Amino acid sequence: MRKVTIVTDSVACLPQHLVAACDVHVLPVRLSIGDRVYRDTGDDLPPSEVTQLQRAPAIDTTPWPPEVYRRTYEEAGAATGCVVHVVAFSQFTSTISLARAGAESAQRRNPSLQVVVFDSATTSTAQGFVALAAARSAARGADLSAVLAAAERVKHSVTAAFTFDSLQCLARTGRATRLAAWASSLLHVFPVVGLSQGRERPIALTRSRNKAKERLLDLARNLDEPDRPLHIAIVTSERYDEAGEMQREINEMLQPEESLLAVASPVTQAVAGPSLLGFALYCGE
Length: 285
What we know:
Elements: E1 5-9, H1 16-21, E2 24-27, E3 30-33, E4 36-39, H2 47-55, H3 66-76, E5 82-87, H4 95-109, E6 114-119, H5 124-139, H6 144-155, E7 159-163, H7 168-171, H8 177-183, E8 190-196, E9 199-206, H9 209-223, E10 230-236, H10 240-254, E11 258-263, H11 266-272, E12 277-283
Parallel strand pairs: 1-2, 1-5, 5-6, 10-11
Antiparallel strand pairs: 3-4, 7-8, 7-12, 8-9, 10-12
Helix pairs in contact: 2-11, 3-4, 5-6, 9-10
């Protein structure tokens, strides 16, 4: 019997079949332009709307107020009485503080409800892998401590890397100005950016999209540990053929135990731009 319910954010970019199979509750994140607020769903943000938002001069990704998180935890925890919310890394977003305020409110209203807001120290499909580890543990009937231990193991081993045609879309949030300045130091370059343990880092400035993809493949090869099972997820905004080809190359080269292909959520596409391509991976036990 399941003892813990897992919640994560839509920017974890989990494929829908895994959301259903692992019984993960996905909370759409918030994006606003002026007075208009969007939820990170295909209904609120169809492709035509995403394209317009990619051209907007400024966007606001301030998270939901605490009462939204409170309601989410009360609904998600109705069956188990225990919720773990795997959130994006705290260095990049204020989600964790607002979610914890929501958790405290939910627990005051219902003292029998346990809520843990778990900082994944990452985002995108790397965050998705942390949430999946927690959900798979919960599906086996694990208690709260075992679920958190499973999430911690992946949190400390998962690494992500991405390339973009430009970091200007991402820079509009005000949270990637250092990377944007680095990438704009030369004209017509394709940056490769890494994300691990709550820190983003510049990896390379390449002269072509193909060189950027080659660098991503080299990174995946170097991070693989052949004696341990590899889990990898490719994520893209709109470059579906490119992402599929990268997945095929990695599958042939590294033969991972788990290989996922994910489409970035609408808000991720709006924030990162149409050219996002990257991966998250970790080596299991």
